[in-house]
């Protein structure tokens, strides 16, 4: 029997309309480069979304299902693009500015973006590949001076695009299962893979993340969105802030620790998100230069890489600020778990409580987790048995965009995360290792396999295996173990760095190299990364 309840669409328009009707007075504050501060209300933003919707449909010819790219930092216009593009039934494709030129070119051609909205400061990155982009009809410049010069074809300034548009626009009726956003995730080998979010998944993810046992956001909060809008929809924060009525503070490219601290103080920010590298930097900067008054910051939500016990402890002891660990993936919208203490933990020692908070945490309502061991069995929830973490839920991917590749999906409908984890008797998941051949440095992926192929293309290199090693600032960094063709050859680290810089961006290039006679191999002849990691841990790699 069908329930007798309205079929009310859970769309980004529903979020926008709600934010405008209940919280039109709430603020969106952007800190642009050069110390420029911009403030406006949710109500003002709403009106500009409607102008944008008119411009997209009437001036740029965008229709339902079209792809529209953004190549931009966190700021007001980028929030307008999130809502304006999805609101007319098009797909907001946020392009990660930190990927290599080759990957960006592939992503734009693969998604078939018709228009790209690009920050003036990021234009040089697109200029290099623009002649190779097959589908882009217009480039819209954001925050560009009137006399801005570019070689990009068919450019318009964002403000000129929307200036004369009407503030009246009737959102089309959208199906909540239609696509609203697209993000690419960099794969182990080969090409980046697209994850296509739906309106419904976006809505459900945002409402769940704002709830008290999860992110805990309300209309009393002022939230700094450090996670870039070009990376997994800024963890859904531009959506949840409108639903929860939290003021939104956007740092654009001001991501240095000192700049973040300045914004935290000036805007009296009490909640924030970000990867561990950012918070480690902020912590050290605060230690070096303790603030005169206690910061308003109460809590920072961390994900992307592991938030360590020592950072949680340091922040809390020294500054009374609480770190909350979350885990997720592009494929899971992204948030899947969060680690918060419960009353059942009240009796534990402080150290035992910290141990729990340093786990990746319990699943959000609407998400299920399981661990599958190497022999294909379900692991017991004993906090000890390791296996691959698998997930399913209302905002978990069912397949990648434009591929039939189903190797990451099980026959019974779960997504294989590539993380190796345990789950304890209270449902707290802990990541122990990773099966995917990737290194996560400062919150961004580096493909070890891509580095290995590039290194092995060097005429003097026979074999190259790249592993992740711990790094205090970046959490992980790549280490390349090299076998030379000829033992008498000399290849300097500078030469290798220079060689790799033709293909890789700076943060992806290993600064650490070790030379060996042979790379350890598994029984089937693959590089045995476990063994290399072991040698490194034992100090046997020099
Ligand atoms: P994001 O960087 O937004 O989390 P990605 O899809 O790029 O999304 O990366 C997802 C992967 O990052 C996870 O599969 C896991 O390996 C790692 N990861 C995410 N959050 C954590 C965390 N809290 N602790 C350890 N690793 C994490």
TrEMBL record:
GO molecular function per UniProt: ligase activity
Family indicated by similarity: Belongs to the ATP-dependent AMP-binding enzyme family.
The keyword Lipid metabolism belongs to this UniProt entry's keyword annotation: yes
Protein source organism: Flavobacterium frigoris (strain PS1)
GO BP: fatty acid metabolic process
Pfam families in UniProt: AMP-binding, AMP-binding_C
Keywords: Fatty acid metabolism, Ligase, Lipid metabolism
Annotated AMP-dependent synthetase/ligase domain residues: 36-401
Source domain of life: Bacteria
EC number(s) reported in the record: 6.2.1.-
Keyword Ligase: yes
Name of the protein: Medium-chain-fatty-acid--CoA ligase
């Amino acid at each position: 029997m069908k329930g007798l309840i309205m079929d009310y669409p859970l769309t980004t328009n529903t979020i926008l309309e709600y934010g405008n009707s209940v919280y039109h007075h709430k603020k969106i504050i952007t800190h642009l480069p050069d110390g420029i501060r911009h403030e406006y209300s949710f109500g003002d933003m709403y009106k500009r979304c409607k102008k944008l919707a008119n411009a997209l449909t009437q001036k740029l010819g965008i229709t339902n299902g079209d792809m529209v790219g953004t190549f931009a930092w966190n700021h007001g216009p980028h929030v307008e693009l999130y809502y304006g593009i999805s609101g007319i039934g098009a797909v907001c494709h946020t392009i990660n500015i930190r990927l290599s030129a080759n990957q960006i070119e592939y992503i734009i051609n693969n998604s078939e973006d018709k228009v790209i909205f690009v920050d003036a400061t990021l234009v040089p990155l697109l200029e290099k590949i623009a002649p190779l982009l097959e589908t882009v009809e217009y480039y819209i410049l954001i925050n560009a001076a009137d006399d801005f010069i570019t070689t990009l074809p068919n450019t318009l300034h964002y403000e000129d695009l929307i200036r004369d548009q009407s503030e009246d626009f009737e959102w089309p009726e959208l199906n909540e299962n239609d696509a609203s956003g697209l993000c690419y995730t960099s794969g182990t080998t080969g090409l980046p893979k697209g994850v296509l979010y739906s309106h419904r998944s976006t809505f459900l993810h945002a409402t769940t993340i704002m709830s008290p046992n999860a992110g805990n956001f309300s209309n009393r909060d002022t939230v700094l969105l450090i996670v870039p809008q070009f990376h997994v929809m800024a963890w859904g924060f531009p959506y949840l802030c409108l639903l929860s009525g939290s003021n939104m503070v956007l740092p654009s490219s001001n991501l240095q620790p000192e700049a973040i601290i300045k914004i935290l103080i000036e805007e009296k920010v009490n909640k924030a998100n970000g990867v561990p590298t950012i918070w480690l930097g902020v912590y050290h900067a605060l230690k070096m230069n303790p603030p005169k008054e206690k910061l308003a910051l109460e809590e920072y939500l961390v994900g992307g890489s592991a938030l360590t016990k020592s950072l949680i402890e340091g922040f809390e002891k020294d500054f009374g600020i609480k770190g909350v660990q979350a885990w997720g993936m592009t494929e899971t919208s992204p948030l899947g778990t969060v680690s918060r203490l419960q009353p059942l933990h009240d009796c534990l020692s402080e150290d035992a409580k910290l141990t729990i908070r340093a786990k990746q945490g319990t699943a959000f309502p609407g998400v299920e987790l399981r661990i599958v061991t190497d022999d294909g069995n379900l692991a017991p929830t004993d906090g000890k048995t390791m296996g691959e973490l698998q997930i399913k839920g209302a905002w978990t991917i069912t397949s990648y965009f434009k591929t039939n590749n189903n190797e990451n999906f099980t026959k019974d409908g779960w997504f294989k995360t590539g993380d190796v984890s345990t789950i304890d008797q209270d449902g707290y998941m802990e990541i122990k290792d990773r099966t995917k051949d990737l290194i996560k440095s400062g919150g961004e992926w580096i493909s070890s396999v891509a580095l290995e192929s590039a290194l092995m293309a060097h005429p003097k290199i026979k074999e190259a295996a790249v592993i992740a090693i711990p790094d205090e600032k970046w959490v992980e960094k790549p280490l390349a173990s090299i076998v030379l063709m000829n033992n008498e050859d000399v290849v300097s680290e500078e030469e290798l760095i220079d060689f790799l810089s033709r293909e890789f961006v700076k943060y992806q290039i290993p600064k650490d190299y070790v030379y060996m006679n042979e790379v350890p191999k598994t029984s089937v002849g693959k590089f045995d990364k476990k063994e290399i990691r072991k040698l490194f841990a034992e100090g046997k790699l020099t």
